[in-house]
Design brief:
42% of the residues lie in helices and 19% in strands. The protein has helices spanning 3-24, 27-43, 45-62, 66-72, 76-90, 130-141, 155-171, 188-194, 209-218, 241-253, 274-283, 292-297, 325-336, 349-358, and strands spanning 99-104, 110-117, 120-125, 145-149, 179-181, 202-206, 231-235, 262-268, 287-290, 317-323, 341-345, 363-366, 385-387, 395-397, 403-410. A hairpin with a 5-residue loop joins strand 1 and strand 2.
Length: 417
Amino acid sequence: MTDAASLIADLGRRARDAAAGLARMSTSARAAGLRAAAATLRDDEAAILAANAQDMSTAEARGLTVAMLDRLRLDAGRVAAIAAGVEAVATLPDPVGQVIDRTTRPNGLDLCRVRVPIGVIGIVYESRPNVTADAAALCVMAGNAAILRGGSEATHSNAAIHAAMLRGFVDANLPADAVQLVPIADRAAVGAMLGADGSIDLIIPRGGKSLVARVQAEARVPVLAHLDGINHVYVDGSAEPGMARRIVLDAKLRRTGVCGAMETLLIDRAFPDAGGLIAALRDAGCVVRGDGRAQALVPGLPAASAEDWDTEYLDAIVSVAIVDGIAAAMAHIAAHGSHHTDAIVAEDEGVAERFLAGVDSAIVLWNASTQFADGGEFGLGAEIGIATGRLHARGPVALEGLTTYKWIGRGTGQVRG
């Protein structure tokens, strides 16, 4: 057994005990722990920002991309938002103990399905130190213990956030091991978590494509994840041009490094202002690459390659295709999308409903920016990630997605005989 494997096994044993304690605690007790953690995050703002400054200096020296630096950077506003997010989770309805459905069998046996915590959740993530707080808050509120393994680029930030929250948890009498931070940066720790079947019940990766691909390929523990955010906005011929422009610019450029950013723009050939949309993106500083039809509309537009349609840029780059209506748009999304988030801009309700019903993505939007792909915007409080698979949870994963269920039967002496 390697040192990393021994370490993860020990964290897992402690987490299992903490999870059992959390599951027995009341909703109000867990919520009080989160409110206390939010308070200690605010108290420790200076220490958190000083730790983040260390990480930013190292990251800049290592030449991290602009998108990665944006994900890593903290300021007073972002620390305040992290604390507010933790508090918001404390106010959400507690799914634990919720009766999903109930039936009485012909023999009188009363059966119901009840939501229960999953147990021990491992989160492997990169860059974003806010994930430390989001994951901790969501796991604890849903009655789960968490083992967090952040990226080396955010070592000091993650440690400062975890230390602040841990102090709040302990002050509120939550188990000290409810949220544990893996103390080593060795990549072997990730491998040990992926192989910790029996110690960890669910792995959630948040990060770049290589991290998520590794987790999905190597894990012996169930995984909840998305690999890419290749998101589309389709502008129908019926779209109102002003609305289309606002949505397209926001979807691409509000924050280019988030997984909800638009990467491909599809424009109906019947839309009257395709050239204007492309020009608006370029004028806003976006690099635009187009198919042959788009190039014909905008002289000098660089050509989009075959690889562009399957690329998550996470940067101010977008690919544009002119398509023959909704059927062609949906075919393009089916061929190149990642089942994350896709949107239609249209005034024609029939066309919009066809898109909403026919596009097989975790999030499908009508007349709204793809940047709404966020648990907070969905009223879920903080999110632990976006799931694009079809099992257990899909879309923004918050409290309900961190529970499973068990069957409870209440009888009056029934036997099968």
